[in-house]
C-alpha cells in the first residue's frame, strides 16, 4: 500500500516536472518571437493560464513527453478540460473568437459564428504556431512547417475568413522568404493597425 502510494506520487512528480519544462520552453520560444515583432506584454503573458491548477494538474497527470496531454485527457475522459479552460481565456487562439449567431428569421443559418481576430492576437497566434512547429519538428524544422500544418486541414473549428486569409498570407511568406522578412512585415502590419486604432 505504502509502496503503491509512493509510486503514484513519483509518477505525478515526474509528470509535473516534465510538464513544467515543456511549458517553460514553449513560453520562452514564443516570448522570443513576440519580442521580435514588438509584442512585449503579450510575449510576457503568453499561456500563463497553463500554470493555473485547472490546466497544470491535468497537464502533469497526462504528461507523456511525446504528445499533447490534452489528447491523452480526451482519450481518458472524452474531452479535454484543460483545453476548454485554456482556449476560453487566451485570445491568441482563434477558438476563443467563436460566438453565437442570433439566427433571426433564417433557421438554417449556422449557430457558431467565428469573429475576426484583432491583429495583435493574430500575430501572437502566428508566433505560437511557429514555436509549436519548432518544438514538434526539432532539428528538422523548416520555415514551411507551420504552413503545411495549416493547409493539412487538421483544424476543424470555424475561423473567420479574414483571419484565415491573413494567417495563410504570413505563413506563406514565412515559407517563401523566411523569418526575418516575415517578422518585419508583421511588425509593420501591427504598427499600421495601431495607427488605424488611434485615428
Ligand atoms: Zn495558448
Ligand atoms: Zn502557446
Task: Describe the protein.
There is one protein chain. With 199 residues, the protein is mainly α. The chain has one domain. Strands 1-2 form a two-stranded antiparallel sheet. α7 packs antiparallel against α8. The termini are far apart. The structure holds zinc ion (2 copies). One zinc ion binds next to loops.
Summary of the model, kept short:
The protein is mainly alpha-helical and 199 residues long. It has 9 helices and 2 strands.
Would you identify the regions where 5 or more consecutive residues have pLDDT less than 50? none
Tally the helices. Answer: 9
Q: Write down how many β-strands occur, each being a DSSP E stretch of 2 or more residues.
A: 2
How much is the radius of gyration in Å?
19 Å
- Strand order in space, largest sheet: 1-2
Average pLDDT value? Answer: 93
> Mind describing the biggest β-sheet?
2 strands, antiparallel
Distance between the termini: 68 Å
Net shape: globular
Strand content: under 5%
Structural class, judged by helices and strands?
Answer: mainly alpha
* Total number of distinct structural domains: 1
- What pattern of helices and strands is seen along the backbone? HHHHHEEHHHH
Helix content: 55-70%
Query: Which ligands does the model contain, each kind named once?
Result: zinc ion
Amino acid at each position: 500500500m505504502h509502496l503503491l502510494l509512493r509510486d503514484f506520487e513519483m509518477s505525478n512528480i515526474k509528470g509535473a516536472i516534465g510538464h513544467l519544462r515543456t511549458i517553460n520552453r514553449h513560453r520562452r520560444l514564443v516570448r522570443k518571437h513576440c519580442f521580435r515583432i514588438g509584442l512585449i506584454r503579450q510575449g510576457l503573458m503568453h499561456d500563463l493560464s497553463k500554470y493555473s491548477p485547472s490546466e497544470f494538474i491535468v497537464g502533469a497527470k497526462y504528461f507523456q513527453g511525446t504528445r499533447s496531454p490534452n489528447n491523452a485527457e480526451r482519450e481518458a475522459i472524452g474531452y479535454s478540460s484543460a483545453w476548454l479552460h485554456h482556449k476560453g481565456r487566451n485570445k491568441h487562439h482563434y477558438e476563443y473568437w467563436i460566438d453565437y449567431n442570433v439566427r433571426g428569421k433564417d433557421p438554417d443559418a449556422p449557430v457558431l459564428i467565428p469573429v475576426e481576430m484583432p491583429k495583435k492576437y493574430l500575430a501572437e497566434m502566428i508566433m505560437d504556431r511557429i514555436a509549436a512547429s519548432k518544438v514538434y519538428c526539432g532539428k528538422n524544422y523548416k520555415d514551411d512547417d507551420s504552413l503545411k500544418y495549416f493547409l493539412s486541414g487538421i483544424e476543424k473549428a470555424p475561423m473567420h475568413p479574414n483571419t484565415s486569409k491573413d494567417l495563410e498570407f504570413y505563413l506563406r511568406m514565412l515559407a517563401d522568404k523566411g523569418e526575418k522578412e516575415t517578422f518585419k512585415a508583421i511588425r509593420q502590419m501591427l504598427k499600421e493597425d495601431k495607427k488605424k486604432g488611434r485615428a
